[in-house]
Amino acid sequence: MSVTTWRIRPGLAAALTGWLVTVSPPAHAAVEHLSVKTPRPYGYVIGDVIEHEVSLVLDPGFELDRASVPEPGRVTRWLSLNEASHEGERRNGASRHTIRLRFQVVNAAQSVTPAGTPPLSLRIVGPENDFPVIVPAWAFTISPMLPPGERPAGQLPDLRPALPPGPIPTDMRLVRATALGALALGLAALVGGRYVAERTGRRARRHFDRAYRRIQNRMRGPASSGAYLDALIEMHTAFNATAGHAVFEHDLPRFFVEHPRFEPLRAPIAALFTESGTVFYGDGPTPAARDGGLNRVRDLCRACRDVERSA
Amino acid sequence: MIEPGTEIDAWRDRALRLDASANRIMVGQQRAVRLLLIATLARGHVLLEGDVGVGKTTLLQTLARGIGGAFERIEGTVDLMPSDLLYYTFVTREGQPRVEAGPLLKHGPDLSVFFFNEINRARPQVHSLMLRAMAERSVSAFNAEHSLPHLQVFADRNRVEREETFEIPAAVRDRFFMEITIEMPDDPALLRELMVDTRYHDVGALIDEMAPSTVPFRELNEVSARIQASVRTSETLQRYALDLCTATRNPAAFGIEVEGVDTARLVQAGASPRGMSMLLQAARVAAWLAGRAEVVPEDIHAVFEPAIAHRIFLSPMYEIRRSEIVGPFVATILATVTSP
Q1: Same domain, A136 and A221
Q2: Which positions in chain A touch B235 (Cβ < 8 Å)?
Q3: pLDDT tens for residues A103-129?
Q4: Which residues pair with A37 in a beta bridge?
Q5: Considering just the CA atoms, what is the radius of gyration of chain B in Å?
Q6: Which residue, of A70, A215, A230, B223, has the greatest Cβ tally within 10 A?
Q7: A85 within a domain of the structure (yes/no)
C-alpha cells in the first residue's frame, strides 16, 4: 500500500495547481491535508478488489459536501464501485474526513490492459464560496487469467466449474451445541462488557464537559471572531448529543421535559438559542454580542457541565 | 422582523385574516389551512390527501371565496380525455352542433382554483395536459394559446381503490408544491360539534361566512414574488436545507435509521432540485406569516414533510409500505440532521 500525500500551503499550492488539486487560489489554504492510500498498481484480474482511502483535513469553517462522495455503481468498463463510506469528525474546529472506496474489477482482460479509477471531485463548502478538490485518477493494469490463444493439451488443467453450495447443517445436536456455546459466550461478554461500558459510557455521556474543554482551549489560543461562533456550535453539538436528536429553539420545551435537571437553566439556555438563531440565521453577531458573548457561552457551558456531572 | 406599516406587512394582515376566517369554517384543521395558505402565497399547486368527507372540497371552496376568482372542479374517471377539460360539444335546441369551453377554459384568466378530484383515476394523457397547465399556466386549444396566469391546481388521490387507477408519473408529482394531508379532527368535542351543530349542515351558507376576496387573486403573483424577495435565508440555513434534502437522497450517509428498513436500499430518488427550491419558497412564506424577515429552522420544519415527502421515490420493495415508512423517515431526517 502506498500513500500519496499533498499538504496544501498557499506557497506550495501554486506549484500543485492543475496537477493534483484544482482549487481556486484563495481556497487552497482551506485544505490542510489530502492523502490517498492505494494498493499495488499491477497484476489485477477479474474479481479482484481494490481499496482506496482518501484522508482530507479542512480548516475550521470549511466542510465537505457529503453529497460529493461518489455513489456505488459501475464507474468504467473495467471497474465497479461496490462501496463508498465516509467518516467525519471535528477536532479543534478542523474537520477530518476519511473516504473509503472499494472498487472491484468486473471485466476480464485478453492481454495486460491499462485501466484506471476516475478522478474524484470532492466539493468543499466554505463560508464565502464552494470549490472542488480533485483527487487525481489512479492508473493500474489488469491481466488475463489464462495465456493467450489455444491452451496446449495436457499442460494446463481444464477450467473447473463453480463449486455447488454446501449442504445446510441439519444435525440438531451440533446446532444446539453451537447455540449454547454462543449463548454462554454472549453472557460472559455481557457481564464483562457492562463494567467497561459503565466506565466509558459515563465519560462518553459528558457532552458539556467535552464542549467546555474545547471552548477553554479555544479561548487560550489567539483571539479571533471565529471562537465565538465555534463556541456556539460546541454548545449546539452538546445539546444534540445530550438529547440524542437535533435540538432547535422550538424543541426546547420538549428538551426540558426529557431532561428536567436542566430546568434551572431554562432562561439562559433559551437566551442562548435565541442569540444563536440571530447569529446563524438572522443578521449575524452584533459587535456587543461577539465581545461579551464568548465568556457568556463559556459560563453557561460550565453551568450545564455541572448539571451533567450531578446526574 | 417585517417592518410594520409597510405594504408587505399590510398583506400579511390580510393573509392572517384569511387564515383566521378559514379556521372558523374548517374547525380542527389549523395545520392544513396554514399549509394551504402557504402554497397559495407561493403560487404552488397542491396534492390533497385525506379520507372521503373530511372537508377537502369545502376547504377549497372557502379558499376560492377568500381569494376570489373562479372555482372549477372535475372528477377523474378512466374514460376522461384531455379534450374534456378543454371543451365539450352538444346539440342546441335548434339542432345545431355547438362547441363550448370546458372547465379549464370557461373562465379564461379568472380561473383561480381548479380542483381535480381523484386525479389517479384519469389516464396519463390527462396527466400530461395537467403537467403543461401547471408548469406553464397555459394550455393550447382552438388553435390558440390560452393563458391561465392565476391558476392553482389542487388534486386529490384515491388511495383506497387500485382498480382502474393510474399512478401519477414522477414528473407530475414533482410539479406539485406540496402534498397536504387533511385528517379528521381527533378531539371528541370537535367531532360532536361537527355532527350536532346545524351550522355545518349547509355547506353553502358556511362558506359564505368567508369574507370575499380578502386576499385578491389578481395580486397574488406579485405579492408572492415580493415575499420571496424580502425574506432572507442565511448561508447556515441554506446549508441546513441542503443537508436535509441530501439526506432524502442518501440517508445512510447521514446515519438515518428507520425501524425495519434498510435505509441504504430505501430510496430510489430523493428531493429534486425543483423540490429543494420549493422547500425554501414555502419556508420563506412560513417565516413571513410569522412576521420574520429571515427563515429559521422552525419554518423549514413546518413545511418539510408536505413539501418533500411526495418527491421521495422508494425502492419497489418498500413502496408498498409507503404510508407507514415515509412519515417516520422524514421525522428521523429532521431529528438527525443538525444545524448550525
Answers
A1: no
A2: 127
A3: 999 998 888 999 999 999 998 888 888
A4: A3, A53
A5: 21
A6: A215
A7: yes
The answer to whether A276 contacts B253, with C-beta atoms less than 8 Å apart, is: no
Cα–Cα distance, B48 to B35 (Å, whole number): 11
Q: Parallel, antiparallel, or unpaired for β B178-181 and B46-49?
A: parallel
- What letter would DSSP give residue B9? H
Top-ranked range on mean pLDDT: pick from A213-217, A269-273, B86-90, B280-284 = B280-284
The C-alpha of A250 sits at a distance from chain B's nearest C-alpha, in angstroms, of 7
Round to whole Å and give the CA distance between A289 and A282: 13
Chain B: closest CA distance from residue A168 (Å): 26
Is residue A149 assigned to a domain? no
Cβ contact, residue pair B340, A67, below 8 Å: no
Q: Which fold has domain B24-218?
A: Rossmann fold (3.40.50)
Q: Determine the 3-state secondary structure of A283 from DSSP.
A: coil
CA distance A58 to A97: 8
Chain B contact residues (CB < 8 Å to A)? 234-237, 239, 242-243, 246, 249-250, 253-254, 294-298, 301, 334-340
Query: Which among B253, B297, B338 has CB closest to A66?
Result: B253
Instruction: State whether B295 and A66 contact (CB < 8 Å).
Output: no
Pick the CATH number of B231-336 from 3.40.50.880, 1.20.120.790, 1.20.1250.20, 1.10.8.80: 1.10.8.80
Q: Do A276 and B340 touch (CB under 8 A)?
A: yes
Q: Do B335 and A245 touch (CB under 8 A)?
A: yes
Tens digit of each residue's pLDDT (9 = 90 or more) over A62-102:
888 888 899 899 999 999 999 999 998 888 788 899 999 99
The grid coordinates listed for B263 are: 435505509
Q: How far is B297 from chain A (nearest CA, A)?
A: 7
Question: How many beta-carbon pairs below 8 A join chains A and B?
Answer: 60
Contact indicator for A295, A212 with CB cutoff of 8 Å: no
Residue A259 CB burial class (10 angstroms; 0-12, 13-18, ≥19)? middle
What pairs with residue A4 in β-bridges?
A: A36
Predicted confidence at residue A23, as pLDDT, reads 34
Please report, for residues A44, A99, A104, A107, the alpha-carbon distance to residue A48 in angstroms, rounded to integers and kept in the order given.
Answer: 6, 20, 6, 10
Residues in chain B: 340
Q: Per residue in B158-183, pLDDT tens? A: 766 667 778 787 878 888 999 998 88
Contact A281 B298 (CB under 8 A): no
Does residue A78 contact residue A142 with C-beta atoms inside 8 Å?
yes
Of A66, A236, A245, the CB nearest to B340: A236
What is the ipTM score, two decimals?
0.77
Q: Count how many domains chain A has.
A: 2
What DSSP assignment string belongs to A224-248? Answer: -HHHHHHHHHHHHHHHHHHHTS---
| pLDDT of A10 above 50 | no
Q: What CA–CA distance (Å, rounded) separates A173 from A175?
A: 5
In the numeric block, the cell 411526495 is attached to: B310
B333 CB neighbours in chain A (<8 A) are: none
Residues from A in contact with B at Cβ < 8 Å: 63, 66-67, 69, 71, 86, 125, 127, 229, 232-233, 236-237, 240, 245-246, 248-250, 276-277, 280-284
Chain A closest-CA separation from residue B56 CA (Å): 30
Min Cα distance B10 → chain A (Å) is 23
Examine the domain organization and report whether A233 and A119 are in the same domain: no
CA distances from A292 to A51, A281, A301 (A): 49, 20, 15
Q: B222 is written with which cell numbers? A: 406579485
Greatest CA span in chain B, whole angstroms?
Answer: 73
